[in-house]
Amino acid sequence: MISNVWKFLRVVVAIAIAFTVIGCQKLPEAIAPTAPTPIIVKLSSWAANPAEQKLLKQILDDFQLHHPGIKVKHEVINDQYMDVIKTRFIGEAAPDVFYLDALEAPFFMSQDVLEPLEAYIKPEFDLADFQVTLLDSFKYQNHIYGLPKDYSTLALFYNKQAFAAANLSSPPTTWDELRSDSKLLTVDRNQDGRIDQYGFGEIPELARQAYKIKAFGGQLVTENGYAAFASEAGLQGLQLAVDQYQKDGTSAQKSDVGTNSGSEMFGQGKAAMVIEGNWAIPYLRETFPKLEFATAEVPSINNKKGTMVFTVAYVMNKQALHKAEAWELISYLTGFEGMLHWTATGFALPTRKSVAEKLGYEKDLMRSPFIAGVNYAIPWQAGKYSAVIMNNFDNQFVSAILGQQPLKQAMVRSQAEANKQIKAME
C-alpha cells in the first residue's frame, strides 16, 4: 500500500514540476495583422490663393478618408508651373496626376506623355454631364486626355452707380452700344483735362481679343498650327479696340491708370465697364465691399455672341506607376461630390451641368451670364505652340493700340515672326 502511495506522489510531483517548467516558459505572443502600406499618388497643382489651397486640402482629406489604401502626396507649384512640369517630364519625375490648362493641352496631348482616360470611364461616371465645349478642349485624335475641373467664361462687369449717374438703365447688348455708353461714362470730374473715369477698361491680350477676331470670321491658327490672326477678317474685329482707344478716347489700359489688372481698374472706379472672368466676383466683393456692380453677357459683335472660356483639367501621366489609383483620384475630384465641394464657394464654376444646377448658378444673377456664355464661348487655345503665338501677338498689338504703328502692320509683323519661330521648332 505504501509503495503505491509513493508511486502516486511521485507522479503528482512530476506533473507539478512539468507544469511549473511550462509556466516558466514564455509563450509566443499573438501577431497583430499589419495594415497594408497605402499606395502613393503624386498630385501637382497651383493655387490662386491660400483659400483655394486650403479647400483642395479638405477635398483630398475627404478622398483619403474614403480611400484608405491611397495616400495623395500633393505639391503646390505657383512659380513657373508649366515650366516645372515640363522639366519633370524630361527628368522622368513628373507627377502621376496634375493640373493642365487648356492653353497647354494641345502640346501635351500631341507628345504622347498623357494617359488616355476613356478606358477607365464607366457609364456611372456620366461623361455626358460635362459641358461639351470644355470636354472637347482635352480631346485629341479620338482620345480623352483630361477631365475639366472648373472653368470661367468672360462677362461684362458694369458699375451700377456710374450707370445711374449717366442715366443708363441697362448694360449694352451690342458692341456699338458699348462704345456709345462708354462716351457717356467717360468723366473728367474736375474739368482739368484728366479723365477720372473711363467708360471701358481694355485688356490688349490675345486671351481677351480672340472672340473679336472670330466675330468676323477670322482664326487664331491654321489647321497646321500656324498663326493666322492677321487676316482681313481678324483685323476687322481688332480694329474695334484700336478705334475706341484712339478715336473715341473712352477706353484705357490698366497701365494708363496705374493698376495691375482690369478688375482693379474697375474696383477703383477708373473704368465703369470691364470684361472679366468669374474670378473677379469674390475679388471685388472682398477688396471693394462698397462697390455696387452687376454682370451681363459680353455684347455681341457683328450680330454674333462671343466670349472666351478658360478651363483646367486633371490629367494622368502615361508613366504613372499606379494608374488605377490615379484614376480613382481623378474620378473623385471630377465626380459629382468632389466637384460640388470644389465649386460651392463660387470662386470657380462647375464643368458638370448637374452640379451647376444643384448650386443654382443658372439662376444666380451675378453668375448666370458666365453660365450662358459657355454655350457659344471660344476655348482659350492656340494650337501646339500657343506661347509663341500669344507672346508675339501681345507684344505687337499693344503698339497698335498706342498708335505706334498701324494695326495691319503690327499684326502682319507679329504673325510672320510667330510662324518663323514655329517653323524653327518643328
UniProtKB/TrEMBL annotation:
Top-rank lineage group of the source organism: Bacteria
PROSITE patterns: PROKAR_LIPOPROTEIN (PS51257)
Pfam entry (one): SBP_bac_1
Keywords: Signal, Transport
Family: Belongs to the bacterial solute-binding protein 1 family.
PANTHER family in UniProt: MALTOSE-BINDING PERIPLASMIC PROTEIN, MALTOSE_MALTODEXTRIN-BINDING PERIPLASMIC PROTEIN
Protein name as annotated: ABC transporter substrate-binding protein
UniProt organism field: Plectonema radiosum NIES-515
Organism phylogeny: Bacteria, Bacillati, Cyanobacteriota, Cyanophyceae, Oscillatoriophycideae
